[in-house]
Each structure stands twice: as C-alpha cells, then as structure tokens.
Amino acid sequence: MYRGSGFFDREPGDFFLLKQICALAFSQVVYFGDSMRSDMFPASSYGKWETVMIVEELEGEGVQRNIAAKPAEPPLEPLGKKVKYEDQGMKTPSAASEQWGSYFVDAHRSESGEDEVPKLTWCSYSIHTYSTVAIPSVEAIADLPLDYKFPRFSPDKPTTTGYFPRPPDSLLKMYGTVP
User: Fold this and answer.
1) Domain ranges within the chain, ordered by starting residue
2) Is the whole model's pTM more than 0.85, yes or no?
C-alpha cells in the first residue's frame, strides 16, 4: 500500500494495516458489491463490514433505478442508440423470468399438493443474511445526503426491511403489502 493509492479487492489484512499506519482507533467499512459469493459473504463474514448489495433484479420487480430521475427528464443516452437486446426482442437482463419466476420469491406446493405456498429463494435469504442494505444501482443513492439513514436488514425486522428505495414487488405481494 502506498500513500495516494486506492484500496481494492476486499483485503482485510491491508485494511487493518491501513488502520495501524493512520493510527485509527475506530473506523468503519461499507463494501459495495453485486456478487453474493465473492462480495457480500466474505465482506460480511470475514471482514465484519457493512455491505451494500447492488441487486439489478430489483429493477425487474418495479423498483426504480434512479429515484431522483423525473419522467420528463431527457434520457441519458441519445435517442438513436438502442441497447443490443432491444432489437432482438429480448427482455432487459433484470426482467423477471417467465420460466424461473422471481429472483426473490419461489412457489412451493403445499403438503396437500393443492396450493402453492410462496417461500424466499436462496438469493433472497442470502441478501437478508449477508447484506446490510440492497439497492438496484449506485445511482439510486447518489443524490442522497451523506447522513441519510437507510433501513437495514435485521433478523428482528420484517423481511421487506433493508431494500432501498423499496422492496421488490414479489416480496410485497408475498406479505400482502403491494402498493
């Protein structure tokens, strides 16, 4: 590590060395990532850091990417430019899958076999377990004040708490709170 260089690649040893060099008695790390396996789990479990998971699938479930953007604002890209998947009739990568269903909630048959019971997916469970907050994109929080207090995931709070700016539609539907 050199003065003026960046801190990357979630190396807790380097972070603790930096704390010693700077004589920091108390410091906090907020780690942003989009992979449960390589970002959230290690940062939360081994680094004991606060974690913000970027979950693009939130966009496919009704959560706006940038809450500060107004519908009347001009698009960020030129009108003539089209994304590759638009010309091919494909859905956006974050759209909910008709074959696989929601990223957050899955339907299981009840023991009687007659009803489908909604249950959290492994992805949803892992987001709640290893993330402090889940957002659709960094742009979703870019215009917020630095002292903004985010709702946080916690075992003693409802499963819908911790998503910003709001939970995905499938979770809201599962708990009967669809807007």
Assistant:
1) 12-67+84-174
2) no
